[in-house]
From TrEMBL:
SUPFAM superfamilies: Zn2/Cys6 DNA-binding domain. Its main location: nucleus. Pfam families: Fungal_trans, Zn_clus. Residues 603-615 have a biased composition (Low complexity). Residues 41-71 form the Zn(2)-C6 fungal-type domain. It comes from the Eukaryota. This is Fungal specific transcription factor domain-containing protein. Residues 633-643, 652-665 have a biased composition (Polar residues).
Length: 812
């Protein structure tokens, strides 16, 4: 550590151990002259009225009389031994030494497994609490890109790549962007609730837009039933669920229009909130629909409700209502057989909430609320027919299949495949697979390919066509082959797959933004940064640089940076990240300037024993929290691995009657049953029969069928009393929990987009400056414009989306 910097940190009055004293002589004792003015006369000298010196641990008179030397601390109102000063000096020396280790870069080569597996508590903004991000969140790719930038520039710190002056400029720019979430004309959020509903004609178009843009992926509502709800509300119904649902549908539908309507959409979200408490009080299926609508809204707007909290409550309610098991899904809590319509809606909401839960768990690297040791799902999919054929009396015989429902089911199958990849590669360290040539990768890629080939051909204008599903397929290919805790050093073949998958997605997503054929959710924006980081990371392989010349790579990078710039209109703060990546991209491209055979791949020691859990990578001390008691569990499939990576029992001290909620990442894959009318590729023989020889592979030694969705799910957790909405565990990030410079990652990456990450979590993002919001006059102006011109805009939007996703070669 720099001497001058260190001297600014230490208290006045003593010299740290080992520094030279007067006359150049090394002093092993603190200088008395430096400490004397900080000490008061001891109690014995005061009582005897004798002269007291500043000796430690005792003054001269006390030392000669061999008595205790104590002074009176007026702040604490008690006597304290002078030896306590020595203890404080030793403590300060230890802290200075630790600070030196944190701020001084290590000259030794980085360990890939430590960098990739290292998850921890990250503070996204200066005033935010520490939040947990696990390996699957993708923060490891940022570390690897920073490491590549440092290697190419010959620097030891990312601060040398992005100077402090520019970092401050980026931070100031981020603050300015975050404090002004506005479109070109109107703010993105509102502070006044909409006083009245849209006109009936506009309402009909907005409901139709919701059915076309939201219901295809998440069929939350039974459409004929909801149309009756709309009629009842316009007829003066005071039912809280009806009023809440109608206003939330308007809000979600408007958010899926042009960005200029975002503030107006937020007005209807505010208008729905007064009905929320009464709407969710019954804790029934309609409550789940309310939670699902809130979650849908929060995923497409940069403020308001934290989706991680809402989806977490919905997950617990699913378990309470008994819809997480095929054995109980068709019966009420009292055992009464439910109508076919209600059973179908229970199935839908289970898969919707499960999809949201799995998606958030992956994006944040957190355990899933539905994750248990068996980790099986046995709930069947809902009816794949149009809603008009599903009635309380049953499903109309001979009803044709609905593309809308088939698309939703196909999307849910993708979530299960994504969860299987995460479970195998991003959670607990397993004996196998130990490299990406292992048969498991071939089997997993074959499942992904069959899923891709069975994508519905016709999207009916929803935008969820084969091209869109190809983009999701490529995203999962990156998840599969990028550096992971299980395989921290991928092969060249894996890097090639990641490069090609990211290249395809870059051009597809850029065109999606330009044509306004996609919702600019935060997940979508994250995927842009993932593609950017992935392309930069692959440049560490010399063969990638040979196969793809610098000019070609620069074209790809400029395209994704343009896409991020376009996405910044919806997500304040994103544009400032471009300033950071401007320097990072330049630094990473310097790999082309050196020896073409040089490899910049971060490797791991081949003979280092594999850690059993993320906490063992850097052997941190135990961390505790006064808010919760965490106790590790042992998996029921006990083998040589005794402690799961993310297994905890959460005891709620405020609710002693509640059951202990098990949150355990299991090992068995989740693969749905192709019971719907999809055209699938022929199954490759022998893939599922291979044995991978590790004790945690539950799909080898149990009766679990990897091709079936009908398996066992965990028992429900009764009781939803005393919900704790602020259940984050406050713990400070330390050098033991995070094996890299936290200051670098906070200041140069995560803090730039901290408000969006905070949206997933318990506390909303609080801007540092007053935020301009939509006022009443602007709200009326927007509403009049939408009622006069919005009908044609809605038709044009739907036609434009249909043309884009049905046109060939739309990824260029």
């Amino acid at each position: 550590m720099d001497h001058n910097a260190a001297s600014l940190q230490r208290p006045r009055g003593f010299r740290p151990y080992g520094e030279s004293g007067p006359g150049g002589q090394e002093s092993h004792e603190p200088s008395v002259s430096k400490v004397a003015h900080t000490l008061t006369a001891c109690c014995r000298c005061r009582q005897r009225k004798t002269r007291c010196d500043a000796g430690l641990p005792r003054c001269g008179p006390c030392e000669r009389s061999n008595t205790d030397c104590e002074y009176f601390d007026t702040a604490k109102g008690t006597k304290i031994s002078r030896s306590y000063v020595i203890h404080l000096q030793d403590r300060v020396r230890a802290l200075e030494a630790e600070l030196g280790r944190l701020t001084q870069e290590d000259d030794e080569p980085q360990d890939a497994e430590v960098m990739v597996r290292g998850a921890g508590l990250v503070r996204f903004t200066e005033n935010d609490d520490s939040r947990f991000l696990g390996p699957s969140s993708g923060i490891a790719m940022t570390r690897l890109v920073m490491e590549l930038a440092k290697q190419n520039t010959g620097t030891k710190s990312i601060k040398e790549v992005v100077p402090d002056t520019k970092a401050r400029q980026i931070k100031d720019r981020f603050t300015n962007e975050s404090s002004k979430p506005t479109s070109k004309v109107y703010p993105l959020i509102s502070n006044v609730a909409a006083e009245k509903l849209p006109t009936p004609d506009l309402m009909e178009r907005l409901v139709e837009n919701f059915h076309q843009k939201a219901q295809y992926m998440l069929p939350t509502l039974h459409e004929p039933s909801f149309r009756r709800v709309v009629k009842d509300v316009y007829a003066g119904s005071l039912d809280p669920y009806n009023n809440f649902a109608v206003r939330m549908v308007v809000a979600v539908s408007m958010q899926k229009l042009d960005i200029k309507w975002a503030g107006l959409a937020d007005s209807y979200y505010l208008a729905a909130l007064p009905y929320l408490e009464a709407a969710i009080r019954p804790m029934n299926l309609q409550t789940l629909q309310c939670f699902a609508l809130i979650a849908q809204y929060s995923l497409v707007t940069s403020t308001r409700t934290a989706s991680y909290w809402v989806v977490g409550m919905a997950s617990r309610l699913c378990q309470q209502l008994g819809i997480t098991s095929e054995a109980t899904i068709a019966h009420s809590e009292s055992g009464v057989r439910l109508s076919p319509l209600e059973v179908d809606m229970r199935r839908r909401l289970f898969w919707i909430i499960t999809s949201m839960e799995l998606g958030l768990a992956h994006s944040l690297g957190r355990p899933s609320a539905f994750g248990t040791t068996p980790d099986h799902i046995n709930v069947g999919f809902f009816e794949a027919v149009d809603d008009r054929y599903i009635t309380p009396d049953g499903v109309t015989p001979g009803s044709p299949s609905s593309i809308k429902k088939l698309i939703a089911i196909h999307f849910f199958k993708m979530r299960l495949l994504q969860a299987e990849i995460r479970r195998q590669l991003y959670l607990k360290k397993r004996p196998e697979p130990d490299n990406d040539q292992h048969p498991w990768f071939e089997a997993m890629e074959a499942k992904l390919e069959r899923w891709r080939q069975s994508s519905p051909n016709n999207d009916e204008g929803s935008g969820l066509s084969q091209i869109w599903f190809n983009g999701r397929y490529n995203t999962m290919i990156v998840f599969l082959y990028r550096p992971s805790p299980q395989v921290p050093e991928p092969s060249l073949r894996a890097a090639q797959k990641c490069f090609e998958a990211s290249r395809f997605n870059i051009y597809m997503q850029r065109k999606q933004i330009r044509t306004k054929s996609v919702d600019l959710t935060w997940v979508f924006t994250q995927s842009l940064f993932m593609a950017l980081n992935t392309v930069l990371w692959t440049l560490s392989y010399p063969d990638i640089r040979k196969e793809h010349p610098r000019m070609e790579v620069e074209t790809h990078l400029n395209t994704v940076l343009e896409a991020i710039f376009l996405a910044s209109e919806r997500w304040p703060g994103v544009e400032s990240a471009l300033e950071l990546y401007d320097d990072l991209v330049k630094a990473c491209l310097k790999a082309y300037d050196g020896n073409s055979e040089t490899s910049y791949v971060v490797s791991s020691p081949s003979n280092r024993p594999a850690p059993a859990s993320p906490s063992e990578v850097t052997t941190p001390p135990p961390l505790s929290s006064p808010a919760m008691a965490l106790k590790s569990l042992s998996p029921t499939h006990s083998g040589q691995d005794k402690s799961p990576s993310f297994g905890f029992v959460i005891d709620n001290p405020q609710n002693p009657q509640s059951h202990k909620q098990t949150v355990q990442a299991g090992s068995a894959p989740l693969i749905p049953d192709d019971r719907q009318t999809f055209t699938t590729a022929p199954q490759r023989h022998g893939i599922h029969q291979q044995h991978f020889h590790h004790p945690t592979a539950a799909y080898e030694d149990t009766s679990f069928d990897p091709n079936s969705v009908y398996n066992t799910l965990p028992s429900s957790i009764p009781g939803l009393q005393h919900w704790i909405t602020s259940n984050a565990i406050p713990m400070a990030a330390t050098s033991q929990t995070i094996p890299f410079s936290m200051a670098e990652e906070q200041n140069y990456n995560l803090a730039l987009m901290g408000n969006q990450y905070s949206q997933y979590l318990q506390a909303p993002y609080e801007p540092q400056q007053p935020v301009r919001t939509l006022n009443h006059e602007e709200q009326i102006e927007l509403m009049n414009t939408l009622e006069m011109d919005g009908l044609q805009d809605l038709e044009d939007l739907m036609d434009q989306s249909a043309r884009f996703f049905s046109s060939p070669g739309s990824t260029g």
